[in-house]
What does this fold into?
Amino acid sequence: MTESWDFRVVGININPIQPSDANAASRKLGETLTPKFLEQEFPEEYSDKKSTNTALQCQKIIQAYGKYGWEHYQQGQLGNNAMLYFRRKEINKKINAKLSPSEEAMISKLDPLQHP
It folds into this structure.
């Protein structure tokens, strides 16, 4: 009997993203909303002053795919994308994993053909 594998490739943009600036957003909106208001109403956008942590993004994707039986077996770089390669045997297809809300949000941004 021949083994059959499924494969997935996920790319993560590795260009650093600058943190959102509530002061700049307020100016852009004609100062109709204050920076303080924007920070309070959109804390996920303005409270985290760190730029993108690519290693953490890769780790979260690898963990989410692992919950579905995917094995991370290789990585590479294509342009400005870190490419993560996953595989699993077809017999593992019917896994119903429980993802956290942040993992669900991350996976929902992928093309449906890349979902775990």
Notes: The first helix runs from residue 22 to 28. The two ends are 25 Å apart (CA to CA).
